Amino acid sequence: MLSTSSAVARPVGRRRSSAAGDSPDGDDDSSSSDDNEDGQAGRAVAASPASGGDEDDTYGVVDGPATDVEDAPAAAAPPGYSLMPIVPFFEPCFPPRIDSAEWDDDLDAQPWDVEELGRVTLGGITLSQLKGLFPPPSFWIHPARSDGRAPSFNCRLVTVENVRRVYESKPWRELRRLPAPLTFAAGDHAFQELVHVYSVHLKKWAQTYWESTHSLPLKSRTDPYFVQLVADISTRRSRARVNFDRSVLKVVRRLMQNGRCDLDVLLDPIFITFPPARQGTKWRPVGPVDPHGDLSLLRALRVLDADEPWRLFYRRVPQEHPAASRDLRRLRDKFVQQL
Predict the structure, then answer these.
(1) Would residue 111 count as lying in a domain?
(2) How far apart are CA 286 and CA 304, in angstroms?
(3) Which domain holds residue 327?
């Protein structure tokens, strides 16, 4: 029988994060967050016409505190339940409960860095250490960057009207739909707060994850629309990183400290990640230009997402997600206690 543990969603303090725009083409991979969780920072910039934000639903970059909504989620678990610490029942444990001596010699830690994991413990891990371990250092979701020449593309597809039409279609909404969890039971009360907080996070920031895997070649474009769009992309990503660290990772850390899961929970297909700097995610659209309309880029986008499912983080084909592969059998139901 599956064990359904309990949790009370604790209110997460509202934080303000500073906007950063380090990347000229919106493909910045450096985090702007700091470890001072009590620090105050600037207010979010208002969404511009080029930002493509969901202004009607306040899902884009909005005026006011950057984490005004998603950092203070409502209670997600049934009232009356409390998260009680237990002895971890799953193996192997990443990071170890006490030290790396508890691991077998033939340990399967893919895709984590075993040396890094061995420096911390499950119950003593800090938020700063957790941020340093996730996302994993290897090629997890995103393909390796090619060392060769960048592939050619049809630059005539990248026009203001075409890009505007893509943004008006809001293709990132697909990322907000969470697949069934692989590592834990969907009805486990201990994980309901995590699912809720992450759903709220994606409700506002799915757009910036989509932009990270559909980064158009806009670096040299001087049109005011593209200049503003590039600035908005960079700002959104910086804010999304800060929000993930201060909301989602806090809940993950609390679950780890109470023996309910380990770092492997973040490999669950539910979670999506920004690509590391060394990995290529540019979108160089190909295909014909429609002389009678501006739907050419939308058609190119549909072809791209069908051919390269990783760009939508395998949301359409969860069975092809790396976590579901035979090489990572340890993940399936790892945090489901059999009684």
Answers:
(1) yes
(2) 9
(3) 100-331
Residue 276 within any structural domain of the chain: yes
What's the whole-model pTM score?
0.76
Predicted confidence pLDDT, tens digits, the chain (339 residues) = 444 443 333 333 333 333 333 333 333 333 333 444 333 333 333 344 455 554 433 333 333 333 333 344 444 666 767 889 999 999 999 999 999 999 998 898 999 999 999 999 999 999 999 998 988 876 788 876 655 555 556 788 889 999 999 999 999 999 999 999 999 999 999 999 999 999 999 999 999 999 999 989 887 888 999 999 999 999 999 999 999 999 999 999 999 999 999 999 999 999 999 987 766 678 877 766 666 556 688 988 999 999 999 999 999 999 999 999 888 999 999 999 886
Domain-embedded: residue 54? no
Contact 244/312 with Cβ under 8 angstroms? no
Residue 29's contacts (CB-CB under 8 Å, 6 or more residues apart) are 23, 274, 275, 276, 277
329, 267 contact by CB (below 8 A)? no
- Number of structural domains found in the chain: 1
Those residues whose C-beta lies under 8 Å from the C-beta of residue 282, and which sit 6 or more positions away, are 27, 150, 215, 216, 217
Would 78 be classed as within a structural domain?
A: no
Pairs from 104-107 (Cβ < 8 Å, separation ≥ 24): none
Q: How many helices (H) and strands (E) does the chain have?
A: 7, 0
Express the helix, strand and coil content of the chain in percent, nearest 5 each: 35, 0, 60
Residue 178: is it exposed, middle or buried by C-beta count within 10 angstroms (0-12/13-18/19+)?
A: middle
Q: Tokens 């009370």 correspond to what residue?
A: 8
Query: Residue 9 and residue 192: Cα distance in Å, rounded?
Result: 8
